[in-house]
Specification:
The protein is built from 6 helices and 14 strands. It has about 250 residues and is α+β, with helices and mostly antiparallel strands. Mean pLDDT is about 95; it is low at about 245.
């Protein structure tokens, strides 16, 4: 067994602790994004940090039929099986999980930073009940697939659920429950995030509210994508790389 740790001192300490327990494992100081070619091929690759794209090096260094398990994005984790021809890895989401991102990933912008202090550019009624955005993890996962760069957070006050959205750059939206139980959307920036949220939400409802376990991922050398229900024929969403850092 080989463990890869980018920090030299942490790698040294980990090796000492493993040796003290008699565990047959080697710890190497290197960038985990690149795997560890000298030890390949592997039967299993297990990541303990979240990626937005699965490094192709992990697929290259895993045997055909081997498994790659990694946290993905901000909500899920996926288990992939490397194809017999070694040209792809495919698998299903396995559950909800939140892990640290790759070391060196820029910190996410906060909602107040993106929101700023100016007035909203747009205000309109929002006709959906906001509670699912607070309570339904499967809806949030589907929205993460459709709107991968949009951060969604929620809170409660005396009137009900409030929702804050931002894209980490310049666009934001607030969905607020009013005393009469209705909701209103305030939006600002070049994008209208509440307007983007609604069709993604409608897709999820029209598809029968798929759970996280209805989604899977395909990784190929030239592209990666998430799909729903069927890897070959189901709807798919391409993945964009956001992380390339030592971990």
């Amino acid at each position: 067994m080989i463990s890869v740790e980018v920090d030299d001192e942490l790698a040294r300490q980990a090796q000492e602790h493993l040796d003290a327990t008699g565990t047959d494992a080697a710890v190497v100081a290197a960038d985990g994004t690149d795997g560890w070619p000298p030890g390949a091929p592997y039967d299993r690759v297990v990541s303990t940090y979240a990626v937005d794209q699965v490094p192709w090096a992990w697929v290259e260094q895993t045997r055909p039929g081997g498994r790659i398990v990694t946290p993905w994005g901000r909500l899920g984790h996926v288990a992939l099986t490397v194809a017999d021809d070694h040209r792809s890895a495919v698998g299903w989401m396995q559950g909800l999980a939140t892990f640290m991102p790759a070391r060196g990933t820029p910190p996410a912008s906060s909602w107040p930073h993106v929101r700023g202090t100016g007035p909203a550019d747009d205000e309109r009624p929002f006709t959906r009940d906001l509670h699912p955005l607070k309570d339904d993890a499967y809806l949030l996962f589907a929205l993460r697939i459709h709107l991968p760069d949009v951060q969604i957070s929620t809170g409660m006050d005396d009137d009900g659920v409030n929702v804050w959205l931002h894209d980490g750059v310049a666009s934001w939206a607030t969905l607020s429950t009013l005393p009469d139980g209705k909701a209103v959307a305030y939006q600002g920036g070049p994008r209208r995030l509440a307007d983007e949220l609604e069709p993604a939400w409608e897709w999820w409802l029209a598809e029968g509210q798929p759970t996280l376990y209805d989604f899977g991922m395909t990784v190929k050398p030239e592209r990666q994508y998430v799909w729903c229900r069927d890897a070959a024929t189901g709807p798919r969403w391409p993945l964009q790389a956001h992380d390339r850092a030592a971990v």
